[in-house]
Design a protein that fits this description.
The structure holds two protein chains of two kinds.
Chain A: H1 25-29, H2 35-54, H3 57-82, H4 90-105, H5 120-144, H6 147-167, H7 169-172, E1 179-180, E2 185-186, E3 189-190, H8 200-223, H9 226-236, H10 238-243, H11 248-274, E4 276-277, H12 284-297, H13 302-320, H14 322-325, H15 339-357, H16 361-374
Chain B: H1 2-32, H2 39-57, H3 59-82, H4 90-112, E1 127-130, E2 133-136, H5 137-159, H6 161-171, H7 173-178, H8 183-206, H9 217-220, H10 222-229, H11 234-258, H12 270-281
The chains are: A mainly alpha, B mainly alpha.
């Protein structure tokens, strides 16, 4: 065991049959560090792209929405999972992104503010940046506060935001009326209309999938970089991190900024699927849903956030079909128990059950399953 | 001038409801280091329980029974969802209470339905003259009952052995355990007390206008109140609650004339504005203990 192989500096092949033997630092830090991961991730991505041809338009729309929510969940995971700053205000940043995108891309001269810049590569970064700016503005307060004080303050943000959005009719169209959302247009091709490249749902699906992959890879890279390690140090013990030379304020501001950037982009994309934004949708419930995604998926894992978002979004079509399966659940909102109540209660129950029984979420379930099969048929 | 005073009295009335809720938050926080986001649902449950019980037993007995019932519900929640989480990060437990809140609220909403439930309270919107001022009786009832409850609570913490145990556990859990104090009992007691207070607060929120599904949002205003007062200060909770109530009431009366550019219903979000302003100056609230962090 003490035989020291000459340590290669760059890429190197790993001995056959020893998938976990790292022989170089680059291997240890690789994004996909084993061949199995490379193969399966590749297959997963290919399948996801392939779905755009196979599935019906209605399912594609649901999945596209789920992908966008996953971007938002990854964002919340950066600030809450990696950097440990509890934020209940994610809905606020999502709203800023949604309205920035909508205002930039809507045609000017309408009932609500519009600038007529429908190109997605302009409004998407703009929506993210404006939300990030809001995050950075909030951060100085956040850096002074800790733990649950911060949670309550970010909760306050949601309420203040709701008030502003309800009052600012020119931007938001007002409660109950709403406005048209961001128009996704790429190099002159409207992605929200059927075209020669595919149906509306197919185009949107591919756009959201591409965006999710880009954002997920970026987040994964961020997490294993110097910044990500600093975030984790701040999360685990902020004073100790500061003693070790991590500038607390800078990294907390950075965490809020990046997280809000993700939220803003998610907001702008989310409503471009339905084409409609309503000020009432950015409520505490949206924040709680994002928290549920992060917790159910797995705190401080990017794949977990995606899994959580998919799980929560696919829960909805599932519960909506309950009335036909279970006789006492009604689809009518005036009757109790109806599907919406069941759905809301499920969010709550799932949060409780996961936190009590599987704190690492779906990611933890996956790790357990993987470990079981790794040593199968031996249990240890 | 009379307008201002009447507005302040209304604010004090509403503020005392916030104070009751805030006391619940603070009691749980001191014992378990967790903000219970389940308080709003317990408040709603209390109000609904009163509205059902009042039809059977009459109002005053209904309030007492509802208080005990909700205290019992809180005990069950604590035992099932909170106790297994001892030793886990406080944030995780706080999120669990968020989940509990959602579940309990769905159950309670099923009892409310779409209509507004009346409390059967003896006050309604009746008004009474205090010298030159005309105020609603229910504001005075809220103030009086809150004053009595706060007095009883402080006496409980000051003079009884259970109060002493709770103070000891709040001060240092491990040392309290070493001295033979059952910290589990303290947890349960804190949740029970908070549930009782939430039910009383819910009853007051429902007086006059009744209870509906959206009533729970009022309880969230107690959160700025505890932050203003400081998370771990009982006195701060009362002061914070009353402050929030008065500021909100004054904005309700005068913001429309003095600052219409803030938009309609700005009063609804004033608690959060006050909270942000206070935190800019004092990050641990007015009376909160400044945490000393050591590595």
């Amino acid at each position: 065991m003490t035989v020291a192989p000459d340590i290669p500096t760059g890429r190197s092949r790993r001995p056959r049959g020893r998938p976990l033997l790292y022989t170089s630092y680059a291997q240890d830090m690789a994004l996909l560090d084993t061949r199995a991961k490379k193969v399966w991730t590749g297959l997963l991505v290919l399948t996801a792209f392939g779905l755009s041809v196979v599935l019906a338009d209605r399912s594609l729309e649901v999945l596209a929405g789920a992908y966008v929510l996953a971007i938002g969940a990854i964002g919340l995971n950066i600030v809450t999972g990696y950097a440990g700053q509890v934020s209940l205000g994610h809905a606020f940043f999502v709203a800023i992104g949604a309205y920035t995108g909508a205002a930039l891309s809507s045609p000017p001269g309408g009932r609500t503010i519009g600038f007529g810049v429908a190109e997605i590569w302009i409004w998407l970064p703009a929506a993210g940046l404006l939300a990030a700016l809001a995050g950075v503005l909030v951060a100085p307060l956040a850096t002074r506060l800790r733990g649950l004080y911060l949670a309550v303050v970010t909760l306050g943000l949601v309420f203040l935001g709701e008030h502003v959005f309800k009052e600012w009719d020119a931007l938001t169209g007002g409660p109950g009326v709403g406005r048209s959302a961001a128009v996704p247009q790429l190099f002159g091709v409207r992605l929200d209309q059927d075209g020669p490249l595919g149906t509306r749902e197919q185009l949107l699906y591919l756009l959201m999938l591409g965006a999710l992959i880009a954002f997920a890879v970026a987040a994964r890279n961020l997490a294993r970089s110097r910044i990500g390690r600093a975030f984790m140090a701040v999360r685990d013990r902020d004073i100790a991190a500061e003693v070790m030379g991590v500038p607390l304020t800078r990294y907390k501001v950075l965490a809020f900024g990046i997280s809000s950037f993700y939220a803003g982009c998610a907001g702008a994309l989310l409503y471009s699927i339905t084409g409609y934004v309503e000020p009432g949708s950015f409520s505490l419930l949206l924040s709680v849903q994002f928290i549920a995604m992060v917790l159910i998926g797995g705190v401080a894992t990017v794949s977990g956030a995606i899994a959580g978002a998919l799980f929560i979004s696919l829960l909805q079509p599932l519960t909506r079909s309950l009335p036909s399966l279970v006789p006492f659940v009604s689809a009518d909102t005036t009757v109790t128990p109806n599907v919406f109540q069941v759905e809301t209660a499920l969010y709550g129950l799932l949060i409780i059950l996961f936190l009590v029984f599987e704190p690492r979420g779906l990611f933890g379930v996956w790790v357990r399953v993987r470990n079981y099969w790794k040593s199968w048929p031996f249990s240890y | 001038m009379t307008d201002v005073v009447e507005s302040i009295i209304r604010g004090l009335g509403n503020g005392s409801v916030y104070a009751l809720l805030a006391l619940g938050f603070v009691i749980i926080y001191k014992a378990t280091r967790v903000i219970s986001f389940a308080q709003p649902s317990l408040m709603l449950a209390g109000a609904v329980a009163v509205s059902y019980l009042a039809e059977v037993t009459g109002f005053y007995l209904a309030v007492l029974l509802a208080g005990l019932l909700i205290a019992g519900v809180a005990l069950v929640i604590e035992r099932i969802a909170i106790r297994p989480m001892v030793g886990r990060p406080f944030f995780v437990v706080a999120i669990i209470t968020l989940g509990v809140d959602v579940v309990v609220r769905v159950v309670v909403n099923a009892f409310i339905g779409r209509d507004v439930r009346q409390m059967g309270d003896p006050w309604g919107f009746t008004q009474v003259s205090l010298g030159p001022f005309v105020v609603q009786t229910r504001w005075l009832a809220m103030l009086a009952v809150t004053a009595v409850l706060v007095g009883l609570l402080f006496a409980f913490f000051r003079y009884t052995r259970y109060g002493l145990a709770m103070r000891a556990a709040a001060f240092d859990q491990e040392t309290a355990l070493a001295q033979g104090i059952s910290v589990g009992m303290v947890f349960a007691l804190s949740w029970g007390l908070a549930g009782f207070l939430a039910a009383i607060a819910g009853m007051f929120v429902g007086t006059g206008q009744g209870v509906e599904q959206l009533t729970w949002i009022i309880a969230l205003k107690a959160l700025p109140a505890i932050i203003v007062g400081g998370l771990d200060s009982l006195g701060g909770a009362v002061v914070g609650g009353l402050t929030i109530g008065v500021v909100e009431s004054l904005f309700q009366s005068y913001q429309g004339q003095l600052a219409p550019w803030l938009g309609q219903n700005f009063a609804v979000v004033t608690p959060y504005v006050v909270m942000l302003l206070v935190l800019l100056v004092r990050p641990y609230g007015l009376f909160g203990t400044r945490e000393v962090e050591r590595v």
